[in-house]
Amino acid sequence: MDKAKRKAIIAGNWKMNKTPKEATALLNAITPLVKDADCEVIACVPYVDLAAAIEATAGTNVKIGAENCHWAESGAFTGEISTGMLKEIGVEYVVLGHSERRQYFGETDETVNKRTKAALAAGLKPIVCVGELLWERECDITEEVIARQIKLDLWDVTEEELKNVVIAYEPVWAIGTGKTATSDQAEEVCAFIRAQLAKLYNQDAADAVTIQYGGSMNDGNADELLSKTNVDGGLIGGASLVAEKFAAIVKAASK
Ligand code: PEP
Question: Which residue among the candidates 67, 100, 107, 170 is catalytic per the annotation?
């Protein structure tokens, strides 16, 4: 992390876990543990938990995010949620392009880009996820994959809008598998992402972007991963569902 240049952010991605009552209980456990954090702390929760989560975190330093949003303002999109709906209830962040959305729900770079632009236009801060499959890493095309995702997912995003974008580097082979990228692997790709941003925008704009690592980050490996210059935080799945583990990662990012 380079806190002089950019904000450190630890975000939980709860995925399809926790009912509204359970969400309140978990956030009531998390908030006192992270109240002195020297980093941004976010919980990205299922849609039906958002209202309860916003209520449970009112007056605390924990921000709430959604796990997706649609690009249209309204219309015939059964099952989808618009950016306006999220904004109105007080959501600040939204995870976009998570590999599970890409893998199981047909998300493409084009739809991730549409969602990203809609989120920014509505004043939401997107956490845009990119990452290579194991097969792509083995074929030595990680950089090509990441460069393509960054270029397409951020297509038409202005330099001004980029200030509100968070990138999460999540190697797909490390998500929910217990297999963490080594800190050197994480640093290498996060630095590559920053170099791509510098090419697409400029060095100052790139230096200001928070680039998180995600993929089995936990209380045991967070210190090492976050010690790297270009790893500015974490997007945390499994460990974000256990208050003490999540708080320990926040503590690591607060150093
Ligand atoms: C994620 O869901 O973004 C994630 C990184 O999950 P996990 O921490 O469980 O690997």
Answer: 170
Q: Is 138 a catalytic residue?
A: no
**4 falls in which pLDDT band (50, 70, 90)?**
confident
- Name all residues whose Cβ lies below 6 A of ligand 1: 13, 15, 170, 175-176, 214-217, 235-239
Helix (H) or strand (E) holding 195: helix 183-200
| 87-91, 99-103, 122-126, 178-182: segment of lowest average pLDDT | 178-182
Query: What residues form DSSP beta bridges with 44?
Result: 13, 65
Give this prediction's pTM.
Answer: 0.97
The amino acid that residue 197 corresponds to is L
- The phi and psi torsions of 29 (rounded to 5 degrees) equal -80, -35
**Average confidence (pLDDT) over 18-23:** 98
Of 50, 49, 45, nearest to 88 (Cα)? 50
Q: How far is the CA of 38 from the centre of ligand 1 (A)?
A: 22
**Nearest atom in ligand 1 to 129's CA:** 3
Q: Check pLDDT > 90 for residue 11.
A: yes
Q: According to DSSP H, which parts of the chain are helical? A: 20-33, 50-57, 83-88, 99-104, 109-122, 134-138, 142-153, 159-162, 183-200, 203-207, 222-226, 243-253
User: Has 170 been annotated as catalytic?
Assistant: yes
Instruction: Read off the pLDDT band of 114 (50, 70, 90).
Output: very high
> Do residues 126 and 96 touch, judged by C-beta distance below 8 A?
yes
